Amino acid sequence: MSKHRRAGSGSGPAPSPRARTTERGRRRGGARRRGSAGRPPRALVLVATAGLLLFGAGWVHALYEQPGAPVTPTRTDARPKAHAGAPEHAARGGARPDALQGLPAAALSEATRARIPAEARQLVLVTGEAKDSSESTAALYTRRAPGGDWVRAAQWPARNGARGWSTGREYGDLTSPQGVFSLSDAGGLLAAPPGTKLPYDRDPGFVATGRGVNGESLAGSFDYVVAIDYNRRRGVSPLDPVMPDGEGRGGNIWLHVDHDGPSQGCIGLPRAAMKQLLETLDPAAHPVVAMGPAGF
């Protein structure tokens, strides 16, 4: 409706204010006199409203039935979607592309992982930076049941042989043996940490003589050791000199306290790490060590 005067109101002079007031009064009065008799029946209003609704619905239906008409929108699935990176449903199965039963694929090969005994539930994974490097990383993994996925419990910096790794180690070549070996016996110059479960031999013979490869002091290196079952008899002290595969392959390869330098073949770990391992490793869990350069 226009905001100007209605058409048909005439072009004569505008009514006076009093006349306008009287006119409004007459209209209101007339409306009051009509009362309820002037209103259309309620039923008629309801019928008219329903008719308008039906007409509108039919018009919309006709619109969407025409060729080229807009497509009626469909309801979308309102269920929450899995967020990016969420694990897939177990039924889909399949190995994770970046892990081998929870172990980092970049650290070891499928062939090496297959050599880890199924009954082992504790694993020390030592990963060298390179074939000829003495720098490495050690991590402790555990799993609840034989054959299950591994979960990392701790990780530390480590050192290995001064000349890296070898699969055919020889006595004095300054390499660490590459492979998977059991961990059966422990010992040291100091008393076993509380909770130690591996057989532990405290002996004054755990004293390193001489100096390290780089001339560093070896004092305290053998305060705590765990024997790596490479060319040794299981179930005896790490100090046992017998080498079943011959002295030419070397022996007495241990996990021991790091002396701030590369080793002649052992794995050096921080003192706190050695204590944690002794407090954790359990013969009932069949602990093993897997050691070698990255991807071995």
UniProtKB/TrEMBL annotation:
InterPro entries to which the protein is assigned, alphabetical: LD_TPept_cat_dom
Pfam families, per the entry: YkuD
Domain L,D-TPase catalytic span(s) in chain numbering: 166-288
UniProt-recorded name of the protein: L,D-transpeptidase family protein
Organism: Streptomyces racemochromogenes
CDD domains reported for this sequence: YkuD_like
Composition-biased stretches (Basic residues): 25-36
Segments for region (Disordered): 1-39, 71-97
